[in-house]
Amino acid sequence: VRNRLSNHVNEKGGDFEIKAAEDTMEYQVATLPRPWKEIIEAKNVDSPPLATCPPAAVHTWSDPKSGGTSLSFPLRDSNDGPINKYLVCVIFPGGDLGRMQSSGFAGYTSALEGLFPNWTAESRLELARLLAEEDNVPNTGGVCIWSQALSHPESGVVLVGDAGHGMWPSLGQGCNVALESVSVLADAIEAVDGSVSSGAGCRNVDFSAEPHEAFVGAIALEYDGLRREDAHAAVDLTFEASGAKTRGAGGTRPSRSSSSSQSS
User: Fold this and answer.
1) pLDDT tens across 175-206, in order?
2) What pLDDT was estimated at residue 47?
3) Checking CA distances to 249, which of 69, 75, 109, 226 falls within 20 to 30 Å?
4) 262 falls in which pLDDT band (50, 70, 90)?
């Protein structure tokens, strides 16, 4: 596992460590061309919790027996239009979706019955046909990344988003956490520019000798002090929520002191 910063540090004779865990869960996505109230059996639509569910709320489903989960999203054609579609993401342990797809739509029927027991039979069959289409290839959720640091002050480089704290999309937090890191970077710039440290301890930095390099390095140091712990916590949360799991066993996050971790 490498990024440009780790390559740069290594070229300079340093050591910059990055640890990663690949998601072994697979997912597929399909969109049903009807609102969710026409997909779920009427008796369930009119009963709690769906009866009080906001129309555009995201729905979650799970089946402990198969290890399958789903995130399902009501969609509109426009911001002020009616909800008229239902985007469904199904997530299963690695290899399961590929085996289902190799058997055609019939390969999905049993798994979808367990995952969506209160859907109409017609809707489950329609979803099975969409998932079985040849071009709907199962994908993995990517890689969770724990970077040793979120900056390298000597190089004036900071890491934001997947470069420093990548995460698979099981909780849909990757973009949110990246945007939060941008906001923290702005706070770090303001803190250093005002000679007030709010995190890593950048007070009394002497910018007179090399003002640009020292200023940028101080920002990088401040940003890492403000952000690293929370960024790692976000990756931990995503990792422990879903992904890197095989049936009956949870994934194991790479130890930050483990000798088997990947260094770059």
Assistant:
1) 999 999 999 999 999 888 775 445 555 545 55
2) 86
3) 109
4) very low
Q: Is the pTM of this model over 0.70?
A: no
Place of tokens 């990344």: 145
Q: Are 184 and 197 in contact (CB under 8 A)?
A: no
| Amino acid at site 256 | R
Which residues, in sequence order, are CB contacts of 160 under 8 Å at separation 6+? 150, 178, 181, 182, 185
Tell which residue, 240, 244, 246, 253, has the closest CA to residue 67. 246
Is there a contact between 135 and 205 (Cβ–Cβ < 8 Å)? Answer: no
DSSP 85-150: EEEEEEEEETTHHHHHHHT-GGGTHHHHHHH-TTB-HHHHHHHHHHHTSTT---EE--EEEEES-S
Assess whether the previous peptide bond of 49 is cis (omega < 30° from 0): yes
Separation between Cα atoms, residue 191 and residue 212, nearest integer Å: 16
Six-digit token pair at 105? 């739509």
Cα 2 to Cα 161: distance, rounded to the nearest angstrom? 14
**Residue range 108-145, pLDDT digits in tens:** 999 999 999 999 999 999 999 999 999 999 987 778 88
Consecutive H or E run containing 217: helix 211-241
